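TASK: fixed-backbone design
INPUT:
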């Protein structure tokens, strides 16, 4: 059998095989599938996808979609690295926008830093990070607790978006 992918090795690497006295058992499912794809594609693939997305070249929405679907940790790490190191405010803001698409719960550790940005658009995208994490299972109370300090922001757009997000989480109209 000519296999282009060594599935046994990937399963071993991912820890999805359990050896027993009777033989073995394996776990699978969509989480394992995403982990396997991330492994097959490799870190450089995702780093290149982040760079392409942030470049705004043709195909950037396709690369963003792949990153959003697979949410590799290295993409989130690259986004926060770009945010921290670029002198370009627009690129820093775009990096946080992309972070909102790829973030997992560990991105909560970066929120203080994001909300300290002088760029109001970066802070708005920081709210989207919370929004996306909330839609992926972050608890209502935890999300609201993260958003409430932003209601004191000096920028009306940021405060307005924070209010909208709190109202959405509470299931209230924006007018309340």
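OUTPUT:
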């Amino acid at each position: 059998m000519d296999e282009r992918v060594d599935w046994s090795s990937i399963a071993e690497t991912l820890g999805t095989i359990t050896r027993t006295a009777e033989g073995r058992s394996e776990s699978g499912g969509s989480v394992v599938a995403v982990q396997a794809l991330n492994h097959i594609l490799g870190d450089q693939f995702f780093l290149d996808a982040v760079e392409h997305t942030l470049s705004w070249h043709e195909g950037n929405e396709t690369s963003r979609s792949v990153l959003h679907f697979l949410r590799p940790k290295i993409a989130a790490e690259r986004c926060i690295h770009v945010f921290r190191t670029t002198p370009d405010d627009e690129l820093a803001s775009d990096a946080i926008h992309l972070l909102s698409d790829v973030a997992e719960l560990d991105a909560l550790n970066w929120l203080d830093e994001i909300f300290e940005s002088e760029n109001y658009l970066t802070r708005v995208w920081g709210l989207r990070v919370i929004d996306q994490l909330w839609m992926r299972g972050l608890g209502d109370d935890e999300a609201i607790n993260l958003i409430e300090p932003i209601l004191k922001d000096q920028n009306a757009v940021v405060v307005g978006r924070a209010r909208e997000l709190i109202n959405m989480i509470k299931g209230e109209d924006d007018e309340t």
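COMMENT: The radius of gyration is 19 Å.
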